[in-house]
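WARN  no MSA supplied for this record, continuing single-sequence
INFO  ligand: adenosine-5'-diphosphate
INFO  echoing inputs
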Amino acid sequence: MDRADRHPTTPSLRRGASHTQGGERPSSAPLKLISPLAELPGVGPKRAQSLAARGLSTVEDLLFHLPARYQDWRERVPLAALRPGIVAVVEGTLQRVRERPMRGARWRRLVTATLVDDSGERLRLVWFNLPAYMSGRLPQGGRVAALGRVVEGADGQLEMAHPELAAPDSANGDPIRPIYRLPAGMNQRLFAKFVAHALEAAAGAVRGAIPEELRIARSIARPSEALEYLHRPPADADLAKLRSGRSPGHVALALDELFAFELAMCIERERMARRPGLELCGPSTLTGPFVKDLPFRLTRAQLRALDEIGDDLESSRQMNRILIGDVGSGKTAVAFWAALRAIESGAQAAIMAPTEILAEQHHRNFSRMCARLGVMAALLTGNVTGNDRQRLLRALSRGEIPIVFGTQALIQENVRLARLGLAVVDEQHRFGVFDRARLKSLGPGANVLMMTATPIPRSLAMTLLANLDVSILDELPPGRTPVATALFEECDLAAVHRIVREEIARGRRAYYVLPLIEEDSGDEAEEEPKSVSAMAARLREGELRGARIGVLHGRMRPAEKERAMREFRDGALDVLVSTTVVEVGVDVPEATVIVIVAAERYGLAQLHQLRGRVGRGRDASRCCLVVSAGADSPARQRLEVLVRCASGAEIAEEDLRMRGPGDLLGARQTGALPLRFARFINDVEMIAAAREMAETWLARDAALELPASAGARAAFKRMLEYGFSLADVG
Ligand code: ADP
Ligand code: MG
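INFO  complex generated
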């Protein structure tokens, strides 16, 4: 530990500091946004390290680390109303102030005091290691306000750990206090001091993306003002808005970022429109017979998609299209048609799926559906190794194999296709942007078709996918019976198991979906199981004894996962107990029940996706949504939407109405969108406004060359650094 202290892990920071300060403590160095936090007064190597562990390395990071909550020092919670876990301000007189050394730690002092409020209720205050600023400031018998988290002490009594104290009139402090997620070893007060310093020294340098003129015309706060507002709210700030992320400060930051995002989208779209793509316009020697031989008639929506894709393929510009269609809407047939269109035009096609089993399934379906067409299809997954792999790679690179199905293995460095005309990405949301970009690197000029079943409201699709062309399959093939969906209370789980038992007895299969892999506490016996392992054990011993039960979750090795899926598909298992990894889909027509435990924990879109695992065969299917005992009534109402609506589009709109775009975007953010403040997007109008501003500005200065575009240009570059340019394939 001593060594680490003497040799900080960030020697470069030290060097930078001593460079400007001649070895002095760099307290008066002019701070820049990019200055390392070690240059802030009061931040030594140790604190810099714990800040870094929170993801805070530079002054800019600190400025954009927004308060997690706000505490109103004007509020007072009566001691009688305290509950463990809440953070509250309480007021009373201090009594029984005691300070004593802590056992086993000579230099630490344990300080306790009792706060007594006007009604005579008492609360213990505890500090391990009293902050320096407070020593000698605990007036026995004095009146104070205390802010802190209420916890249950070892003796079962409530106590407040490490509260902050202030004079009861609060005249000394700000009435609305930000509460931050803190780095280890820092308290709110110290952290706020660092933030204040950063605000004063550097906030003025934060440059927004929105050009001044647009910003003023729309009365949007400057980013520096927004930061000031959020870190040090004025006394008259609307606390409710601050708490719900709707304050002017929140709006300004979200809009600024959205503006940069929309700018990047528009620019990318323009760039792509100019990128040449292979022109695929051969005679319909394959697509013609394919459509004729299909065992069904294509839906109008499918036909429309074929037209749109066909036009794109024929044109000399590269196709970048996304096909959005509900589970079961028939995206695969569209993809096969597009692949055949490429092949009959003399090019190759590649179809990438997120799992081996799905790639296999596509390969098998293609071989079956296109048997009479005599098109040779290959499968390339991680399982193809050694000589087989070499042979396959050689054939692909020579253009001898017209269509290849595969997993990520397809985009590995050494795969080359002689003449890739079309790359299809199925379940695109399961791939990172890097994967999708690499797919394109398989062949320059390749047209890209992405497919997703994630229902997304049109209003959001317009924005989020603005760099792509969109085809929507808004129609299911005829003759589908909707999956009968019902809510069950946790205590009725027995009824659910009975349904499953009956289905198994009729030779059908069932999924159970659970939120956890393993229960962490020992009291499994009392509660209904919430984990894969607990549920599987329970079913094996009890309700479904004798059934063949397998498990599937993200901590299993890929090969094990594939095996479980395969066994379930092939009927070697009756029941698959799984986490949500089962969401992307294999087609198991014999599966007729899906039980989703703790359904209230999931978003509607995800539940809909999960529900899509059943109802894929001729038999009527059921979806049992099991609601936890503790779920509140808004959660139950949300789930009712699934009972009512069968279509993904409808559900998506409903979800948007109930949750707001910020939540939806936030959920999508995982790995995809470079939006830090997405959660503050409160309505679709904000997105529309950002888009409109971006378009207005680009009409004026398409290359972002004007001096007034400097901020926009910088923000656009930052988007690129986030990997945005790669998002041009998704
Ligand atoms: P998804 O869009 O979820 O990928 P699939 O492409 O797997 O859906 O199609 C689901 C099922 O519907 C498949 O069995 C497929 O053969 C069938 N199908 C596709 N299009 C039609 C259609 N127009 N009429 C009837 N069945 C269809
Ligand atoms: Mg599919």
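The domain at 74-173 is CATH 2.40.50.140 (OB fold (Dihydrolipoamide Acetyltransferase, E2P)).
INFO  checksum written, moving to next record
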